[in-house]
Amino acid sequence: MRFLVLGSVNIDMTFRVDHIACAGETLSSKELEINAGGKGANQSAALGKAGMEVCFAGKMGSDGGWIVPILSAAGVDASLVISSDGIHTGQAIIQVDSIGQNCIILNAGGNKTFTESDIDSIIGGFSQGDAIVLQNEINNVSYAISKAAERGLIVVFNPSPFDSAIDTLPLDLVDIFFVNEIEGAALAGCFHVPADDKGFRSILEAIGRKYPKAVIVLTAGKNGAYCLDSERNVFFAPIVDYPVVDTTGAGDTFCGYFLASRALGKDYSESLMIASRASGIAVSRRGAMESMPSADEVFGE
Ligand code: RIB
Predict the structure, then answer these.
(1) Residue 226 Cα to ligand 1 middle (Å)
(2) 228 has a pLDDT exceeding 90
(3) CATH fold of 2-9+39-88+113-299, please?
(4) Of the residues 2, 164, 170, 197, which has the fewest C-beta atoms closer than 10 A?
(5) Which residues contact 249 (CB under 8 A, 6 or more apart)?
(6) For residue 301, what pLDDT band results from cuts at 50, 70 and 90?
(7) Which of 42, 281, 12, 284 lies closest to 294, judged by CA?
């Protein structure tokens, strides 16, 4: 099975602050780091580090050229990255506070310049049995989901960042959803974000009723991670506790390692545990892509 990640690539500008800035506040940062990011590129890097055959298709300007070798070093085939002079690379302004929590503002740049013909030619290189991994940081997601399903690809969708347009997408074509508790509540149409086991399970079940064929993976931060399989069994794994330095990219790491574990034939329980270990290691380090552990660190234990 080959993975195609069709998604965003960003230049992450990470400001280390004591606390996340409030409305009207001007805050001095302690440090600025410039890292490679973007949910699409990050998820491809996690798949690559986990040893999967993965291709990343993204759009960037020449200002993002330095990110390509980082992807390649993570084991990602970046030959489908489109770089043009007329666009700039997506940017993320990230505040990371003293307890590792983050707050992210995006400027889409090239991420929102995908044409239908770009998507046709990218997806045209993949066939039945391959998987496409999509997030919500690019344009034309609806077209990409439909085209990929039409071609027989397994459709994986992480509806992040969540917005009102998500409900207009052909989500009945999605085979696997990755959501956090906020995205999960929104997808389920619930007004309250759950905060306990009962709430997480009810969100999972509500999404499961809405999309009866799909597998749903829900990450709930410190409260662990859940999976609802296509027979509607629920699986759970607690977090693997590491000191929290920076949570940026933890969800992307989880997604990549969960998919890799499933592709390697692990069952849902074990896949959740492996992905939890990988994202636990990622939060103990700085950055997004840079923080992701290698396959040896994750599978070797
Ligand atoms: O999921 C983390 C990512 O979200 C960051 O790398 C940032 O670029 C945003 O896309």
Answers:
(1) 22
(2) yes
(3) UDP-N-acetylmuramoyl-L-alanine:D-glutamate ligase (3.40.1190)
(4) 164
(5) 37, 42, 282, 287, 288, 289, 291, 292
(6) low
(7) 281
